[in-house]
Structure formats: structure tokens, C-alpha cells
Structure of Phosphoserine aminotransferase:
Amino acid sequence: MTRVFNFSAGPATLPESVLRQAADEMLDWRGSGMSVMEMSHRGKEFISIHAEAERRLRELLAVPKNYKVLFLQGGAIAENAIVPMNMLRGRESADYIDTGEWSKKSIKEAKKYGKVNVAASSEKDGYTSVPKQESWKLDPRAAYVHICSNETIGGVEYHWTPDTGDVPLVADMSSNFMSRPVDVSRYGLIYGGAQKNIGPAGVTVVIVRDDLIGQALPITPSAFDYKIQADNDSMFNTPPTYAIYIAGLVFNWIAQQGGLAAIEANNRRKAAVLYDHLETTSFFYNPVAREDRSLMNVPFKLRDESLDDAFLKGADARGMLQLKGHRSVGGMRASIYNAMPIEGVQALVAYMKEFEASHG
Ligand code: PMP
């Protein structure tokens, strides 16, 4: 068996030990005589898996008691609609911060449900930075302020938490969820799809302050009403059981690594290997402002784009896959989520040096 270094932006590489445990438990989960996939979501076995996944997540992120943790379906793109449906709460408009492709998608979708005030945007600089909070034109009557805490395509990440006063802060954390400690109490709502740092596609995690739910727009589908889901322990509809099981195993793995502080330290070490190299060469470049560079997704370009295909081909031949940048921006992108070992990043940098030496 050969496992490659998989730099995919998502679905993405998972810890090998988690995959091995899932394989061991595939046919017979702990003497139950069945696979987790085959279990009733109302049975005691799955209820214990679900409860344990939530307990671990709460412990790792130190989620305060007055927050609900929901395991839903639909992914972050569905949340782009579900958030305004639930969070407008009778108010007219919401503030959005525009930092790139994923913010733009959120803004476009929210406009179907209410007014959107784009309170700040980094469009002018080609989405290579996070606008400083001093420049934000926030509306004190806004229902909430929405940010994308890590732009997966642009490689732009918030390394600070905005201060939105009494207006709830809402974050799409899809691509940096569980990559570092977060002070959940600073947010009204956090959401993210699982398929980067915590498991297979199919489960969406929503962490929401309990006083903000229960005022969904009447058109809100019941399965997407946070209050209804919270009252039913995320089992108003059949939850994505297998994805929740794997997420639970990944949470255990994070705890074994020493928790989120240790995960963050490791992520910083890994990203530094790549960013430090990008500082030393002009053959490759990353356009993002230094203080806003993502620890999770590192886009980089070759100055001579005619070499892109040769670079990717050589990477494939060396067992480094999925380095092609998003179709909207081109170039390369290395996604180096929690489960990417530092050896993968070191191998990539060694290859970048080799490629530059033979083509530079
Ligand atoms: N937001 C961000 C920041 C993302 O990275 C993604 C997926 N790449 C999404 C939203 C959309 O997620 P999904 O396709 O699971 O709905």
C-alpha cells in the first residue's frame, strides 16, 4: 500500500490512524455485529457515537454551555441560505465582510433573504488581504456580521477575531475549523463543512448561541431550522451518521495530538516551511499580505505559467497530488490541513527547489 501526500482543498487527507480504525471497525463496530453505516440513528449504539463526538468537540473547543452544537447536512453552501433564514430575526439587513470567492458566494445567497451591507471588501487588492477592522462600515442595527475566517481559494485567513460589539459575529470556518483554539464566546455562530479538517463530506457543524435561535423566517425548511434541530439533538431528520462517526474519531485524534493548541503549533511549523521557502525565491510567489496568509491553504504561482503543467506532472510522479490551484485563480495551491504531515510539506519544498534548479 502506498499513500500519497494529498494536498487537496477538500475532501482532504485524513489521519491515517483514523482510517485504520474505521477499517478495523467497518464490519463489526465494537461487538454490535454491524457497521456504523448500518445502524439506526435512534439506536443506543449510534446515540452513544453521536454524543461522544459532540462531547469531544465541546471539550476541544471549550464550547460554552449556552451554545448548541448541531450536526447537519447541506454543507457550507446550504448554510449560506440557512444562516440568513435563521439569523435575520426580524431585522432588515446583515453586514458581510468580503474577502474572496467564498465570501462572495455567501453574500450572493444571503441577498435572497434580506438586505446585505458589504461593510468591507478586499476586492481592490485582488483579495490578497483581510480589510482592517478600522475600515469596516458596520451597521449597529445589523442582524449579524458575517466573515469567512479562511478563504480556501485565495489563501487569506483572519489571525484575529473581529469585535462586533452586541451584533453577533457569524463565521464560515469551513477550511480552518479545528485548526487552532477559538474563543467561541466571541461568536454568535460558527459553521463549517467537515471535509477539510474533521472528516468526510456530508456533515456540517453549526455552533450557535442559544438565545439567537427560534426566530427563523417562516419559509425556513424545518430540517434547516436551528431551533427544531437543537430541540431534536440534530435528529429531526436522519443525520449523516457515518460522517459523524468519522468526525468523532478525528476529534479523538486531535485530543491525542495534545488538543487544538498543539495542533495549531504544528500547523504553524508546517506553513512556515512553505512560506519561508516562498520568501527566498522569485521563481514562485504568493500574493497574499504576510499577516493574512492562511495556515491551511497556500496558493502559489510560477512566474512562468507555461511551466505549470510540467510542475504538476513532476509532483504527481513524486506522489504529491492535487496541487493544481482552483480554476478561478490558476497556479498552484497546497492545502495543508491538520492531517497533512510536515514530511509532506518538506517533500513539496524539496521538489520546488529541484524544479527551480532544473527550470530556473
Ligand atoms: N466555504 C468555504 C470557506 C469553503 O472552503 C467551502 C468548500 N470548499 C464552502 C464554503 C462550500 O462547502 P460545501 O461545498 O461543502 O457546501
Residues 16-256 form a domain with the Aspartate Aminotransferase; domain 2 fold (CATH 3.40.640.10). The chain has nine helices and 14 strands. The first strand starts at residue 5 and ends at 6. The pocket of 4'-deoxy-4'-aminopyridoxal-5'-phosphate is lined by residues 10, 75-77, 102, 148, 152, 172, 174-175, 193 (CB under 6 Å).
